[in-house]
Amino acid sequence: MKGFIGEDFLLTTEAARRLYHEHAEKMPIFDYHCHLNPAEIYENKQFSDIGEAWLAGDHYKWRVMRANAVPEEYVTGSASFRDKFNRFAEVMPGLIGNPIYHWSHLELKRFFGIDELLSSKTADMVWETANAKLQSPAGAARALIQESNVRALCTTDDPVDDLNYHRMLAEDKGFETRVLPTFRPEKALNIVDPNYPAYLQKLGAASGIYIRTIDDVKQALAQRIEYFAGVGCRLSDHSFGSPDFTVWDESAAEEAMRKALAGEQLLDYEVAAYQSYMMDFLGEQYADRGWAMQMHMGAIRNLNSKLYRALGADVGGDAIGDVISAASLAALLDRLATRGKLPRTILYTLNAADNDKLIATAGCFQDETTAGKIQFGSAWWFNDHYDGMTAQLKSLANIGVLSRFVGMLTDSRSFLSYPRHEYFRRILCEVVGGWIDKGMAPADYDGIGKIIEDICFNNVWNYIGMDR
Question: Beta partners for 376?
């Protein structure tokens, strides 16, 4: 059988093929948002097998296994990685249309040279072939990153993290890929979490500030921002469902914190007031530092309470939530812009119904300080499939400026996920090449090829300020 992943995979026109092979394919990767563990990078983690590398922390795969009635023992339970891998191989043929089908076969092809389709029939061969590399120096974490031509990557880090592994990586002259932290103060903003008071104690310990008031929280976060900046941080990240940033009430924000520390029930208005107040403060801090601010919106978390009680968060129990109000997003951006404190901002949505809304809102806050200052980020999570990426690119081209787009990221915990950048680049070239093929764009391969290269790497490198 002819190999599934050919050199022209997803490229159906000559224009698309030229754009990809002459331009996109050669560009390095800047994975500016991922969830890799910096300790595993520093220690050059060696995987026991493909089962561990694929299934130890990938809730995408866990969801499709559960959908095929695979017992939890073989998903997140006590079964061996070999048994888990076998069960995943069994369900793979039925995943046609799911991005996991494309991603998995791209990974097998790129990292292990495997052209065969994964199934129960090929599981033994795939297991042995992949493990031969993973158990060798070429299969260690750093080698996998460098093989993928990753120039730099940004992990996702809590304000209380000591960032020691980032410091050691920065001093390690034997590893060329730059590994930078990202400041994610999600736990300091999630005031309805029962663990919020305990987290503030950790934040206080990390910052050396005894936290009793909302001003203490601000002071502690500012201290940690300064600390992160000293280790090379250039980005923040925030995750919300459908926040209401139209609420502006400092006294209600203070009352929200008082009630949270006392274990009392908060009103929705108070939660909104607290989050608006804190995001306004943090946005100003980021602007003063020259950081970019990422905002992920539209997720609803831990819907399956039984699963959450058994396994905790980030195990495949999250879903697409409600859309965000345009007025809400604009309220936050406008307060910051009015004071000249709006940082470079990347907006992501899990609800594709928000695509055009976010792009249109972003366009209201562009200015002369940075080209593409307010970005509509790449198709995220439940949208990072063929149709979702295509829709995101077309919406951005229709309503915004595609040529300024900062491109793809993995948002992944896996060292084998870098072919997702290739997947995105092929889709990008298919979309733009299709316009050339239909006469909707000129056959200017030098000019449009430069745009492709910029979207793949140059734009985000400059946007984050990696040469500063």
Answer: 347
